[in-house]
Amino acid sequence: MRLIKIFDTTLRDGEQSPGASMNVEEKLHVARQLARLNVDVIEAGFPIASPGDFEAVRRVAEEIRDVTVCGLARAKDIDIERAAEAIGPAQSGRIHTFIATSDIHLQYKLRMSREEVLEAARYAVRKARNYTDDVEFSAEDATRSDWDFLCRVVEEVIKAGASTVNIPDTVGYAIPQEFGELIEYLMNNVPNIDRATISVHCHNDLGLAVANSLTAILSGAGQVECTVNGIGERAGNAAMEEIVMALKTRPNFFNADTRIVTEEIYKTSRLVSKITGMVVQPNKAIVGANAFAHESGIHQDGFLKERSTYEIMRPEAVGIPQSKLVLGKHSGRHAFKERLKELGYELTQEEIDKAFERFKQLCDQKKYIFDEDIETLVSEEVKRVPEVFSLLDLKVESGTGIKPQATVKLRVRDREVVTTASGDGPVDATYKAIARLTETESHLEKFEIKSITGGTDALGEVSVTLEEDGRVVRGYGSDTDIIVAAAKAYINALNKLEGRKREPSKGI
Ligand code: KIV
Ligand code: ZN
What we know:
With 508 residues, the chain is an alpha/beta fold.
């Protein structure tokens, strides 16, 4: 099995995603997690780019052990000197220097001839070698470069001392088969190629970054450059987690693996998303919220009989605790029954049938079905909660400089009762009035509020957890007025408690 090096550039190219820049502390936080993930190289930044980037590379170099820490530098004296200074404290430090090799870049951006570029590349590698033995050279825009010129550049930089030569698909232009052929061409036409590790660095403009990286591995690349969640310039870079898990899942096909501790993948993905503010799309491979979620009834049934019918990887392998069976309109009775069991309901077949019928109706009304919906459905529709208490009227006074007050009118069994209470806020005042009218002494364990739709006219959904004499119930209420939603949720929970007093062995 070949071991492929993972060169993580989340802190450099990943940071080039619009809006994803990280400060020094944030970079250190991510770097520590990348070390736990066991990447081979951390490209911590571009030291010449800003004092903050210099500082970040230096701090990562000072702190992180057992992982190579790398700083990027253009093929220019000042960049290389700054990168050398930044990686100075590293246990193992690398300078990554680059210059473009495509005619488009030479003509319009660099305004240099091929010979000048060749000389600049040689010079940059030699200069970098004065500071470290570990020098990587990148031929920027390699995939749009003339293949024979690229071969000459690669040969010369290896002669000058580069131990890693990177072939970037800078603009995400390559197609897997063609990219594989380019790597093979280099392997067959650069005489000293065996003296360096060939690396690839693919961008995702055509959505092919991971496919291109994997094809390059098949053609002999020994290092892949990638980022967590695939973040990076424009459409991003090849996603680390996808490359690693493709190799892990198809060992017979690739005959290659990495040193990555795959169980750390999900945690790393969450951390990078939180720090950069780059949200992971739900259908993102490996780490998306739906990556291990099954909704279709046929899939759920197969999965429950034997998970390998519809799962090629175990979620635990990437640090996700378990697969999810999402209940929705495509789900079947099998998954529904399982979920009822997980929620602690022991229902008769007749009750299950009734609940399932009601569940299917709800699926046509609601996009997402949460466990709370199922609990409400079971307790209110199947094991109907008797309405001992119901809300008739609610008036609240609150604002700046006044003590909030709530006047609540309830029906308690067949009596109408009303009272006014004050509290620390409008919800507190309302709850005090309700507790007084219902003469209950439950303890509020949890109060959660969320808006169902966006905008100031959103429907507010409140859920409360009450405890009384060891009985715990959850109540729900929704309304465009959040105080009314809170009152409804409290009353719903109190009604459940009343029901439980009569029938203590039944579910939540
Ligand atoms: O995409 C690219 O070419 C790069 C180089 C600096 C390696 O990021
Ligand atoms: Zn790049």
